[in-house]
Amino acid sequence: MTGNKDATTAGGGKGRLFTMGLVTAWYSSNIGVLLLNKYLLSNYGFKYPIFLTMCHMSACSLFSYAAIAWLRVVPMQLPRSRLQLAKIAALSLVFCASVVSGNISLRYLPVSFNQAVGATTPFFTAVFAYLMTVKRESLLTHLALVPVVTGVIIASGGEPSFHLFGFIMCVGATAARALKTVLQGILMSSDGWVIPLHR
Question: Contact at 8 Å (CB) between 152 and 117?
Answer without folding.
Answer: yes
